[in-house]
């Protein structure tokens, strides 16, 4: 099993072995360093390696650790941002480009699977979107018209494959589903065979030009420096401090995988129209079928009862399906672009050979492949029709951003040389095993967690990105930052950027032991 950025175990994690890279690492310059061993990073790496570039993927944890290990893996051309909104925000021509890019992305997945014989349960299946109120019906009719206008295959249908009452529905042919981690590990294996290198447990921290005149980049990582002609941040959100963090708020989404008593596993990828919406699909893994349902989304760090979201989702599924067993429950993160489309291309505020792909919303598998196609062209110097519509440079400068960053970017350190009494903290916090909370202790604020064995773990709650106070996520046993979505383990290790530095640890000592030692 591989590790993921939370305590819950996803269906995908539980059904793959750990990935052991077989790469030979060179200290010579690489053509491309890719930060992030998820769907975007490895798909792009393979594309570039096949074009003769020497690439290395540096993953801060293990490949698939981030949202690739927690997605529900819908491959769709019907996007979370409806084409009605894309047309309104970007115009008809751009919306047609988006539709064509998503179709090309699905084709790339299929081509990879066929060409490299990747066994990952891939199946094409239709998508369904259904309305249940008059307002939703009007919205659905507009979405149908917009799909027709931009060239997405779509038809009205009188039947949907889930047992819900509905007043109208559309069917979108040739969507798809697969096991994302089996696909990812397949791609990683081919990439290494083609001469590419993968390093796990190597966090990219920053980069700068090697010298003023040249274009070569010095990429600083937790395992030393690498030289490269290009750097791609395929880290879901770029690390450090960037204007894109103000344009991509972070959300959590919840998923469960259940076995049914009967054979009513729905064919297709199915979505209702509530906000947040719920989604359903079936996946067969090693001869066993699972119904996967998701939803209950909220902004990261803004829900105090994260475990309750699973209960709501489960109760909803049980009220419509004959559930025999809930096999897995897990949550994952996505970054929602404020204008509705991802940011793929040059990373604003960086040298022109530094790139980013972020803001996928709930369409990460599709957009990761759009990003692979687009970034491949940018790095190889080819024209690409998708370049303009996804260009991160479309973000307008924010007044005062530079001062804001300067003011907030001091290193967060308050606890050095201090220690806290274990007995007093136990009494003050009154935590049950497995619980965490932010507490005030004398003049200090601590993020305190009591593990299942009763031991306390304390860290400074000031997020190391821009100092917001983290909040406890009981479902995933993590400290989540409500400002830009950084997440940390219960003892402060970075799970999700943009932060690159762990939360400051606080030392806890037993008064009893201290006294005995005096
Ligand atoms: Fe920006 Fe925490 S993620 S302050």
From TrEMBL:
| Family annotation (Gene3D superfamilies) | D-Amino Acid Oxidase, subunit A, domain 2 (3.30.9.10), FAD/NAD(P)-binding domain (3.50.50.60), Rieske [2Fe-2S] iron-sulphur domain (2.102.10.10)
UniProt key word Metal-binding = yes
Read off the CDD domains from this record. Answer: Rieske_YhfW_C (cd03477)
Q: Which PROSITE patterns match?
A: RIESKE
Q: Which InterPro entries match?
A: FAD-dep_OxRdtase, FAD/NAD-bd_sf, Rieske_2Fe-2S, Rieske_2Fe-2S_sf, Rieske_Fe-S_prot_C, YhfW_C
The Rieske domain covers which part of the protein?
423-517
Listed A to Z, the keywords are: 2Fe-2S, Disulfide bond, Iron, Iron-sulfur, Metal-binding
Query: Which Gene Ontology cellular component terms are annotated?
Result: cytoplasm; membrane
Q: Name one GO molecular function term.
A: 2 iron, 2 sulfur cluster binding
Per its record, how is this protein called by name?
A: FAD-dependent oxidoreductase
